[in-house]
Specification:
Structural class of chain B: alpha/beta
Largest sheet of chain A: 5 strands, mixed
Low-confidence stretches of chain B: 1-5
Low-confidence stretches of chain A: none
Oligomer: heterodimer
Strand content of chain B: 5-15%
Shape of chain A: globular
CATH class of one domain in chain B: Alpha Beta
Distance between the termini of chain A: 46 Å
Strand order of the largest sheet of chain B: 3-4-5-6
Helix content of chain A: 10-25%
Structural class of chain A: alpha/beta
CATH topology of chain A: Beta Polymerase, domain 2
CATH architecture of chain A: 2-Layer Sandwich
Mean pLDDT of chain A: 91
Number of domains of chain A: 1
Strand order of the largest sheet of chain A: 1-2-5-4-3
CATH topology of one domain in chain B: Rossmann fold
CATH architecture of one domain in chain B: 3-Layer(aba) Sandwich
Radius of gyration of chain B: 18 Å
Mean pLDDT of chain B: 86
Helix content of chain B: 25-40%
Distance between the termini of chain B: 17 Å
CATH superfamily of chain A: NADH:ubiquinone oxidoreductase Nqo5 subunit
Amino acid sequence: MEREALQARISAINPEITFEEGGEMLNVYVEPKDCRDLLQTLHNMDDLAFDYMFCLTCVDWKTHLTMVYHLESTTHRHIAVIKSKLDRTNPEIDTMCDIWRTAELLEREVFELFGVRFINHPDLRNLLLTDDWEGYPLRKDYEDPINMIKL
Amino acid sequence: MELNNQNPSQEAFPGDVHPSATGGIVVTKLDDVINWARSNSLWPLVFGTSCCAIEMMSTASAKYDWSRFGFEVARASPRQADVIIIAGTIVNKMAPVLKRLYDQMADPKYVIAMGACATSGGPFFYNTYSVVKGADHVIPVDVYVAGCPPRPEALMHALISLQTKIKAGGRPEKMVIEHFYDKPEK
């Protein structure tokens, strides 16, 4: 599907969805509470068929966190980027790991590095960091007086 | 470029051969012979933690071919290796592994810190929670190589410098490191 057609098709799913102009790929903003429903729909509908999640990450904007899901369809070869703004003090969002299995490890990584809690995740524990790690290293206000030299 | 035979590290053999009717007699010092033998057969350990490893592999492969200088076969086991080239970033999780690999190597053993990360943490010196600021916080280093990553020529220079260091046998006056570029004539 072309970009304009894809935008029209996705906005028909949920009227509250907003789009960001510019950018290489179609950027879709959705509320965290509607995020899982939207992604489930994107995955299941035959004309959309986003069967491949090639990136799941998070961005710390200091005022809020943004979850970013990069999706592609291997049959239609179209790409969409789904973004969802989270509250920085209590960030939580539904897990996507039953839709795309790859999300299980990626969500664990976002959990340990940004502190986002994924609701209904089957095994939410640290992936790369040690189990007793304190703090979330990829947050902009992270402090580590022992290992980190601030510039 | 003219070949420079003044470099003590490029001596053919550390000693004098006195011909006699039945063959010859070699007069030398055992320490020098041992160091000469060691320096010309340094087996590196297969150890690369990031992009410097690509340059290290290039140095080992046909175009640069470090075998010419005696860095023959890279060993996958630290127990068979003489020199470890720290080719890449050492993170806090990797540090105990590096220490363990070093401890498992048989004496005499040598360490080359290849590139900015292994030397000082390099681009990860500031604002990073996970990177060791120089491999010499973990194990002693013989030769440091600048670069990010260093070119194969730089690594070869480091390897030849290590040979010079071994042949010098702890005598600083013998540690003359030759540079690859031509010296300006006076």
